[in-house]
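Honest question from a wet-lab person: if I give you the sequences of every part of a complex, can you actually get the arrangement of the whole thing, not just the pieces? Trying it with mine:
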Amino acid sequence: MAFITANWNPLGEAFYRKIELYEMGWSLRDGLKDCLVAAAPYGGPIALLRQPQRPSSSARPQLEIYSSSGTNMASFPWKSGPVRQLGWTVCDDLLCIQEDGTVLIYDLFGAFKRHFSMGNEVVQNQMLEAKVFHSPYGTGVAIVTGASRFTLATNIDDLKLRRLPEVPGLQGAPSCWAVLTQDRQTKVLLANGADLYILDNTSCTPVTPPGLSPQACSIVNMAVSFSYKYLALFTDSGHLWMGSANLKDKLSEVDTKVRTPPKQMVWCRRPKSQQPSVVIMWDRLLLVAGECTDTIQYTLDEESVCVAELDGVRIVGGSRHELLQEVPSACQDIFKIASMAPGALLLEAHKEYDKSSQKADEYLREIKEQSVLGEAVRQCVEAAGYEHEPETQKTLLRAASFGKCFLSNYPPEPFVSMCRDLKVLNAVRDYTVGIPLTHTQYKQMTVQVLIDRLVYRKLYPLAIEICRYLKTPEYQGVSRVLKHWACCAFCQTGVNFLDDMGPIMSGENQTLHSTVRTSYQRSMVTYLKNEMNRGDFFMTLRNQPVALSLYRQFCKHQEQDTLKDLFNQDDDHQELGNFYVKASYKEKKLEARLSLLQSAVDEYNKAKNEFAAKATEEEMKLLRFQRRLDEEKGEALLGLSLQETLHALLTSNFHKQAEQLYRDFRVPDKRYWWLKLTALAEKDDWEEMEKFAKSKKSPIGYLPFVEVCVKQHNKYEAKKYVSKVTPEQKVKAHLAIGDLEGAAEAAIDRRSEGEISTVLSRCSPTTDRALLERLNRARSTASKK
Amino acid sequence: MMHTTASSHLTLPTVRAKMSAHLSYGRVNLNILREAARKELREFLDKCAGSKAIVWDEYLTGPFGLIAQYSLLKEHEVEKMFTLKGGRLPAADVKNIIFFVRPRLELMDIIAENVISEDKMHSPRDFHILFVPRRSMLCEQRLKEQGVLGSLINIDEYILDLIPYDGDLLSMESEGAFRECYLESDQTSLYHTAKGLMTLQALYGTIPQIFGKGECARHVANMMLRMKREFAGSQTQILPVFDSLLLLDRNIDLLTPLATQLTYEGLIDEVYGITNGYVKLPPEKFAAQKKQVEVGKDLPTEPKKMQLNSAEELYAEIRDKNFNAIGAALSKKAKIISAAFEERHNAKTVGEIKQFVSQLPHMQAARSSLANHTSIAELIKDITTSEAFFDNLTVEQEFMTGVDTDKVNTYIEDCIAQKDPLIKILRLVCMQSVCNNGLKQKILDYYKREILQTYGYEHMLTLNNLEKTGLLKPQTSTRNNYPTIRKTLKLWMEDANEQNPNDISYVYSGYAPLSIRLTQVLARPGWRSIEEVLKMLPGPHFEERQQLPAGLHKKRQQGENRTTLVFFLGGVTYAEIAALRFLSQMEDGGTEYIIATTKLINGTSWIKSLMDRPEAP
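Yes, you can. This is the full assembly:
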């Protein structure tokens, strides 16, 4: 443990440390020499554009994409125009900015996605320099052209090109420049010799950094901090000026005593840094400068690139990948030699405890006497988060856990979540994954984004495991990963995917399971719908019965018109007919309604559904008839069924019209008789009823006449029809009018045991005694037979 | 204003023990499932710290009532309950608003409206959504489009697949399942079924044997087997409670639900409709019970709501009897109860009196239960003795026995002419079609035309749906195989004994439900004996075996019954359940049945679910 501080270097009050993240897995013959390099922050991927060994007209540069540990993810010869700048978007897409201002976008695996142009002016004047930058609005691109003009795009996903005003006196490229985001505006800060300007949308303002040493004739390099809050300027006199990005305050100025313009300069801060500091890189030298006059110097033995991070600087070289950062105060407190901080004592106590030494108790007592045990635990937990080596993490966490035993109500949350975080971090830092995130970066970027990054890298099983481990809600976690996976798998396997999902799942990826099948078919359908053009989409669906029916359900609720197109595509005339019928009921205007029904008729005919076509024609005929009568006679028939219409006509004495409908619609006689009978009874038109009964032989017999009259409480009229009822129904008819005697008579006549019993059940034992006896006798004879 | 109080949503017995005790009595303790569901609900509620109001998708209140009563919610700081409705939420002084909803897009729009109007008022509330039974990407997408996804703190799903409905009965309470599966080929509910069965196996052990008949059954079995493969390794080490599972498609037996159920419970459902274990009855008959004095003073106008399940001793005894045996059963019970009350005259010693008194509450409950059921039976008797009921039943039985199924039926004609309720007509016409293996084109068209002219042309869509599901169909082959099926499976028993049944046919006074016959034959002598008939019914029949972990093989005791879970995909009727219970109780049956279904249905609710009513302008 003693050697933990071995790689610490003091700078003023603070310490800096440089730790190795990876030995790079790539094998580059000449290291990073003659390479255009872009490495994404947050431990992102690295892109290299290597110039051909022998410059000849046929040789092409090679574009290669690697993980932070140097694992190759893509590699292909560059066949487009000359590239000036590479950069990464926040979504891990690679931007290749060409001389002519064309920006080509590739995914992590080198698949071309799309391209856009930075404007016509660039085409003519060529681009001199370009920078890729990140802001809350997304990833942006800024360029300066041969005409010394700047063009900005703040968000490449919502491309709006802004041409900035001219800079007075500027010819060719500025000596150095940077993009700033201030007051929600993106600006360019540039130096032309010793002059400094801020360019915004409308103006070019000369500015002076407060207290910049007067020896300088030219500002040769500048750097803006990760948060856009701080600015560093490097002058040809070897002075490094540090201040706020708004140029209002100066933080410090250091004479580096190196006058060569640096190759790269980046801020090296961390949230809650003890001092501002900047890392400057020359060919063989790496220098850290802060507030004090001292600097830290490292020799560089290979061509390297600095990558600014939220809490430090990563140095990527041909063989190594390192992290340079200010040692966080929690680590300083614990590991600084002879530190008496609570955390340091606790660590010591635990060490002794492991050795079964009684000194453990002494240390513990000391902490407890000062009642700083809680603080000690907190420090150990925090420091564990900053350590890269799992062994050191474990040591610190064990000490924290040990300390916790002596505290009665220490909240378990921080400890538990740190353990979880570290487990995740160690997993993604693993060489095979190659995302060297620090705890601070991880917290800043959030789990969701980390999951996204893993998904972009197609590391689905790991992503799912992390989601499960962190118990991320299904929809943010596992489901989301599966969705991405499904989309990706789909693109690779084509349309059979929807049905083949099961086999793929169990075959290729055992951590995935198909319980998601149905719901993912659903999401696949939505996904496809948005991604494909409609014709292709429908054609795709056609072969997928399950997906098709799901999509139909969706349309039924959401997109009626799409539903129609879908039926059209399938030549499903029956469903199209139904569709028009449904639509017709939503239509208020009769004409429109009729025309929809006509369309339905046409479709039904095409579907060879003769019945439906005819019925719909009938419906149209009825509607027209109703409208005519409504107009002529002021009835309100529209919308009634045929039966209801007839009933309305019959009760309002439109017998002629009723007759006409009856004939036109070929209403069966039986039903028409029922209808007329009830209508007449309802309006007490007994005379008409009698006439009607005599008009011809009733197709429904005469029992209904009896019953309908009784229903209208007219037993007198009912009686008239009893005699006409067929013998089988006589008993029923007599009973209907309450004539027990008659019913008994009829039943006995017919010698039907059942009917006699029916009548018997209606007799009361007190009032109908004679009848009862008679019936009982008749029944016994009937049963003997 | 939809501001409803809690009690109107979840009118549940206040005594918790009573609520769930009946679930534990059966052969399989279904209370375990209920407890698992309750635990999950509590966990979700505790995720939203502080006071809460629940906004209910009204459809869910019924099923939820079977899982948790208001007291449970109250224990977890649920202070208010509302019904989901557009516009602004009613005022409530709570920290959390939780929406309990089905994953339906139209409901998402309402939620968005609620949330946006709350946001406008800057109320410092947390919003959450609990999707039942599954969350849906489409819905979340919709919420995102509406711009409210970000305002929702917790979005979760509450997997309520199989709800314990009674001691031997599980239901998914999914109304649309039949329609979705057989009309719209939407298999979502089958997926839920498979998931539900996996949950069940996690709690009650792997079911070693799976039998099935029908397309959907095959599909569910496939999904189950696949899920099991994928979960391999995380197998439960539970001794299997179920010996076998039988999956049955509703469409292999379209006839049974069309017939009028003739058991007591079946008739209550036919006449008044049982929803989520509750029935609403006309109040008049129940008025007199409370206080004799108040009779006629003010008759209650609110329907009387009663819970029906086997927790009620008397109901458990009579629910599955043929209605014609109810009178005798009730009067026997009346005698027993009054005899028990008479006991008080014999109670001489203090000890005896004490014992008598201790039994009083139980006796009083029994007496009031008896009074209730006497009233219900009277209500139903009024209907069953009516001529209309008799005529209808006569026609049904003619169809089921194959009388004149190939002709236009005069009774149906007359009913149409008198514009009887459409569903009644549809039930009869469909029944005729099913019993004739389709109707002659001419007859079918005649019926359809009669229906359209009488009830309106808009019902063409409904008729179309019925044809798609096979309930109505034109005869394609000249051979009607229904008589063969009827004879082989003995679907019609001339001498059905309603009082002391010796065969399942008592539940329809003569007709033995096809689905249950299949179940019965499977148990003994096995389906091999009826291969021919099985081939006539739609869809494949199959048998699958699931490997049990070593050491979990059940050693059956001599004479120990097998336990079979019968799952009806697309719904089951109370009469069918009664028939299965009858089989369970048969002395030499050898099998006890637990019943599961997507929904409890009767002919009316079933046909209704297949109807399309275009909205009139």
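Two things worth pointing out. Residues 610-633 of chain A form the longest helix (24 residues). Residues 493-520 of chain A have pLDDT under 50 and may be disordered.
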